[in-house]
Amino acid sequence: MDRVIRYLKNDILKHIIYIGVFWILIGFVLYPAFNTFISSLKSQDGLTLKYYKDFFSNKNNITVVINTIKLGIATVLVCGVIGTGLAFYVNYFDFPYNNIINKLLLTPIMIPGVIIVIAFIQLYGESGLITSTIELLFNLNKHPYDFKGFYGILFIHAYTQYVYFYLNVSVSIGYIDYSTIEAAKNLGASKLKIFTSVILPTITPALATSSILTFMSGIGSFSAPNLLGHNYKVLSTQILLAKTNNYMEIASVQVMILLFTGLVFLTLLRHYERSTKMEMSVKGKAIKPVKIKDPKKRKIYMALAGFIILTIILPILTIFLLSFVKPGTWMINIYPKEFGLDNYIKIFTKSRVFAPFKNSISMSLWATFFSLILGVPCAYIINKTKFKAKGILELLVILPWAMPASTIAINMINGFNKPNIFVGNNILVGTYILLPLAYFVGIIPLMVKTTGVSLNNLNNTLIDASKTLGASWKNTFKKIIIPIISPGIIAGAVLGFIRCVGEYTTSALLYGVANKPISIAMVNALYEFEIGLSMAYGVLIIVITSLLASLMLKLRK
Amino acid sequence: MGEVLLKNIRKVYGNKEVLKDITLKINKGEFFTFLGPSGCGKTTLLRIIAGLESHQKGKVYLKGEDISHLSAEKRKVGMVFQNYALFPNMTVFENIAYGLKLKGLNKEKIKNKVQSYLNLVNLSGYDNRNITQLSGGEQQRVALARSVITEPEVLLLDEPLSNLDARLRDKMRLEIKELQKKLGITTIFVTHDQSEALSMSDKIAIFNKGNCMQVGDPVDIYKNPKNSFVAQFVGETNLYNVNISNNDAIINENIILKLKDGKKGNHISIRPQDIMIYKTKKSLVNEFKVNIVHIQFNGATIEYICKLNNLEIKIWVLNNTFNHNAFNTKEDVFIHLPKESINVL
Ligand SMILES: Nc1ncnc2c1ncn2[C@@H]1O[C@H](COP(=O)(O)OP(=O)(O)O)[C@@H](O)[C@H]1O
Ligand SMILES: [Mg+2]
Hints:
The complex is a heterodimer. By secondary structure, chain A is mostly helical. Chain A is globular and about 85 Å long. Chain A has helices at residues 2-39, 50-57, 59-92, 98-106, 113-124, 129-138, 149-173, 178-186, 191-220, 223-228, 235-244, 248-276, 295-322, 342-349, 351-384, 390-398, 405-416, 434-456, 460-468, 473-501, 505-510, 518-527, 531-556, and strands at residues 42-43, 46-47. In chain A, helix 7 crosses helix 9 and helix 13 (295-322) crosses helix 23 (531-556). Helix content of chain A is 74%, strand content 1%. Chain B is α+β, with helices and mostly antiparallel strands. Chain B has eight helices and 21 strands. In chain B, strands 6-7-8-3-9-10 form a six-stranded mixed β-sheet, sandwiched between helices. Chain B has a five-stranded antiparallel β-sheet with strand order 16-20-17-18-19, with no helix packed on it. In chain B, strands 2-1-4-5 form a four-stranded antiparallel β-sheet, with helices on one face. In chain B, helix 2 crosses helix 3 (107-120) and helix 2 (92-103) packs parallel to helix 4. Chain B is elongated, with a radius of gyration of 25 Å. At the A-B interface, helix 19 and helix 20 of A face strand 6 and helix 2 of B. Residues 13, 18, 36, 38-44 of chain B line the site of adenosine-5'-diphosphate.
């Protein structure tokens, strides 16, 4: 009898959890996306393809689509070259600074994109510090370059998005079996032959994976095109325009096209990725970093190292430096002259100025909290159970990953601008919670993935062992399961929080007076020529994210 | 320490019957081994005893008390898992102390007891090591200490030696056996390795495809296997299909072996070391002229594969000064199969 009751209890709880995760995923991911789809088709006389026809009959719109794809492909190419090059530079040559350079090279992913864009404008824009310096040095009366449009965006993408290639290729270089290179040399293969026959096949899967990630972020990118795109228009900025002018069906059509573009590329590369995936042979000899002995080459190498460090550090230094510029003192001079803590004092004393900071923190906490509630059970079901609908669950969970941020925002509007049964027939558009919910949708895949990894570390026999040693289910959970999986969960939560706290794209599409986030405040301050204030906001975000990141790394150990 | 009684245990996974109808008695303080090929249901039976697996039919008794309905944490059964299952988030000390802490012992007592058990498994000074810093053998000893420190009524060991290299395995055989003797704990040991079973056990149960084929002490099982599976699985043997009539076993219709009176069955088994081999005819019962087809040198023994017509016969001879290089390949020799060494199955 005891058993029957316990079984029923467990079973009921299990079913509640299953229903709960599907409820949330369908309600916040699938149903809103479905509404966007319907909205792109729905007119007075039922479902039509009218909006699509209208869209494609306008030449400007076609240019926008082409621009988006062009930007995506160019981003993949540029980041591929830079990221792969850097990965070989750091992992293939033996130099004392490699460790520092490696860490530095990873920093751009920790800093929200919008902050980097603003820092770049301060450095390379029309009146930017570097631009002005070059003009001064060479006595030019024209701008030496035009940091906007396609190349401006691409420059920023290169800086912020090479990291995927860098990370993945670095890992795969570790898989190169040095003994096969030796064998190839032995057989008289040329350097080129060795590269194409040994090295390239090993890193190809990494290249494919990184291409997918980079392309998706390239076509979905918003802050760079929005802040310095000028005449170069892409889908994500057009979506904002359509939404602002309240043409939701046009925004929906654009979202569908953006989604479609992403999915096509995703399927193509996935297919390619599968076909190239080779069985890693039993790990042979690890590649050993090459020592450079030729002094001339050494010098080139060192110069390159210096250049990399400078390029990466410069924007970050700029943000810190400019955050101390006294308000209203830097208008005509090339370089700022008066510094002080005024901007920080303003943020922490004026509640109107403090509000965006507070909003971002609390909304990111909400989003992280939601992602924990959904992500942990999902990861558990996917990794540890034999649940029949697991495949569907997995698909729902990775779906947001294929959706650029602007897509998620439009989906949220389409899903929640009328009573929605998934949230008790409430309308969420115009409320505080809509933006944190959109953040939450964006970080679901990340949360499930990181939690899943740590759940896989939890061998079932550990739970059995705990039981045979006399531990109740509660004790086993507290003393074994939680300590083993919590580092992964915390890492997921920290990464998710970092992603939300400086988020710009969904914010721009969904914020209202009640929940203006820090990223919007930064951009507004920039437009109001309060550069110092804008940068002080940026510094606060960077400080928070780097503190959290180092905390996470500590916990990992 | 208590005795364990398994009564008519049946276990089904889906439509696969993994344990058919197992009834066994494990006496107090006994070192009892489940021996059988991989997949025969040993682990499943062990987990049923531990309460980690449900079963469809039958009862588990510990000290005469039915514990079938008790959950694992209430059974007073210690278990060492095949992969040791040490908690990666704890040190050696914390792993061993885990069960005691759950019992609510005070810190001082826990500390002393853990120290004495660390001593017992030759790991004193390892308290603060991380389990990732331990070798396979050391992990094994931590797992042992952890499972016996709570003084369970029975200790279950699931192939504890299978992850160790050959030399360490021999050493741990001895250590486990010694620990078991010192503590006097009723122990059920699972293995697929017959030499492990023979050398360590007080009693062995042989399993095949969810059935228990034979129970007995090692000598008995080795000497008197009940069926051809046991004869083949425990030790090496020459096993032949035979027709028996009038105390004669007829193999391949042309070889006739004299048996002891009144034996009945379809097979005979004779161990390779029970066959005598020599050069000149002695005119004994069951003496045959055979040809040596292969000689294998094994160090302490020499193995001869001989042919009698088409019948292959394996013979082991001790490799000492008398037997060394006694015979050559292709040589014709005589063998003698003593009546009392022939098992009829
Ligand atoms: N959880 C399970 N689900 C289905 N079949 C199982 C499960 N566990 C074990 N089995 C099957 O039960 C049989 C016995 O397994 P096991 O007890 O592990 O064997 P042994 O320990 O003797 O190698 C095997 O055929 C195995 O495939
Ligand atoms: Mg087993």
